């Protein structure tokens, strides 16, 4: 009897080792058959543990020949790494999709995917129901509203700049109302969800509201979908990541789930 073929090992590159990156590493290494190559600005004193190795830079990442790369760093890191990975035929699962508010970068990514057959995977991140939004948006009449609601403490500097600090202690204050690209351009660290929704629904059909609300208990995301196929509403009140309270803990899980699905037989 011949020996059974060894199970494949998926080689996953990871950019960023902050709140999301560390959770992604822990979750992915707990799955059998995954090896991690991590690009980070500082390697922890004890290293990363079994199954993971440090990669110095973009060149080292490409030389490591990953099957896919997870970006969990920043919009700037997305802009620096994603085009090179896609050009090399490596799919990328990205957290910092707010970077696509830059229409030129978005267009470049699309061209690279067309040319090489590689794919940018946009996970649901801090929200969900993206499949429902994309289905409803096949009808051009569909309109989607995304409302980001956070306590005033999450927007101290922005409220002060607008002279709204006092008003925001008394009731909800609108910091922004408009399209998803402008929202992500103004608040690149906070509006990835709006971009994720707009990518599914279409930028021309998506409007974004950013509210500072003293009654908000956490980072809440509301999505309203209205159109000929029905009206729906979704609300996500996420637990913060203990390492970065501005980040929803579910985001790392979403990146890992999207990566596992990407490698899996069921899409
Ligand atoms: N898609 C979503 O729904 C969603 C939700 C939350 C956060 N995010 C985004 O995910 C990203 C990571 O969030 P986080 O909470 O882990 O942030 P974090 O600040 O805790 O960690 C980011 C890490 O990436 C590193 N980094 C930044 N640029 C880098 C580069 N060029 N090369 C290597 N390392 C680099 C930083 O040093 C830091 O350690 C952010 O861009 C954030 O806006 C997306």
TrEMBL record:
It is an enzyme of class 1 (oxidoreductase). Pathway: Cofactor biosynthesis; NAD(+) biosynthesis; iminoaspartate from L-aspartate (dehydrogenase route): step 1/1. GO terms for biological process: NAD+ biosynthetic process. NAD(+) binds at residues 126, 192. Its EC number is 1.4.1.21. Pfam families: Asp_DH_C, NAD_binding_3. The keyword Lipoprotein does not apply. Keywords: NAD, NADP, Oxidoreductase, Pyridine nucleotide biosynthesis. Residues 16-123 form the Aspartate/homoserine dehydrogenase NAD-binding domain. Residues 170-256 form the Aspartate dehydrogenase domain. The active site is at 221. GO terms for molecular function: aspartate dehydrogenase [NAD(P)+] activity; NAD binding; NADP binding; oxidoreductase activity, acting on the CH-NH2 group of donors, NAD or NADP as acceptor. It catalyses: L-aspartate + NAD(+) + H2O = oxaloacetate + NH4(+) + NADH + H(+); L-aspartate + NADP(+) + H2O = oxaloacetate + NH4(+) + NADPH + H(+). The keyword Oxidoreductase applies. The iminoaspartate product is unstable in aqueous solution and can decompose to oxaloacetate and ammonia. Belongs to the L-aspartate dehydrogenase family. Specifically catalyzes the NAD or NADP-dependent dehydrogenation of L-aspartate to iminoaspartate. NCBIfam families: PRK13303.1-3. This is L-aspartate dehydrogenase. It comes from Salipiger thiooxidans.
């Amino acid at each position: 009897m011949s020996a059974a073929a060894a199970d494949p090992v998926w080689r996953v590159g990871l950019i960023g080792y902050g709140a999301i990156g560390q959770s992604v590493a822990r979750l992915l290494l707990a799955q059998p058959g995954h090896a991690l190559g991590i690009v980070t600005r500082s390697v922890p004193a004890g290293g990363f543990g079994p199954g993971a190795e440090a990669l110095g830079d973009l060149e080292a990442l490409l030389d490591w020949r990953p099957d896919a790369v997870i970006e969990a760093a920043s919009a700037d890191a997305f802009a620096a790494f994603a085009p090179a990975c896609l050009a090399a035929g490596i799919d990328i699962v990205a957290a910092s999709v707010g970077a696509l508010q830059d229409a030129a970068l978005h267009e470049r990514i699309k061209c690279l995917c067309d040319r090489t057959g590689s794919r940018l995977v946009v996970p649901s991140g801090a929200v969900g129901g993206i499949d429902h939004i994309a289905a409803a948006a096949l009808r051009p009449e569909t309109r989607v509203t995304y409302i980001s609601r956070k306590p005033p403490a999450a927007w101290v500097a922005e409220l002060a700049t607008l002279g709204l600090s006092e008003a925001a202690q008394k009731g909800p204050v609108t910091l922004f109302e408009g399209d998803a690209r402008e929202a992500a351009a103004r608040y690149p660290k906070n509006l990835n969800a709006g971009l994720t929704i707009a990518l599914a629904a279409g930028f021309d059909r998506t409007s974004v509201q950013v509210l500072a609300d003293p009654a908000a208990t956490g980072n809440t995301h509301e999505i309203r979908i209205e159109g000929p196929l029905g009206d729906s509403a979704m609300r996500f009140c996420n637990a913060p990541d203990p390492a970065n309270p501005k980040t929803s803990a579910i985001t790392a899980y979403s990146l890992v789930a999207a990566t596992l699905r990407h490698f899996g037989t069921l899409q």
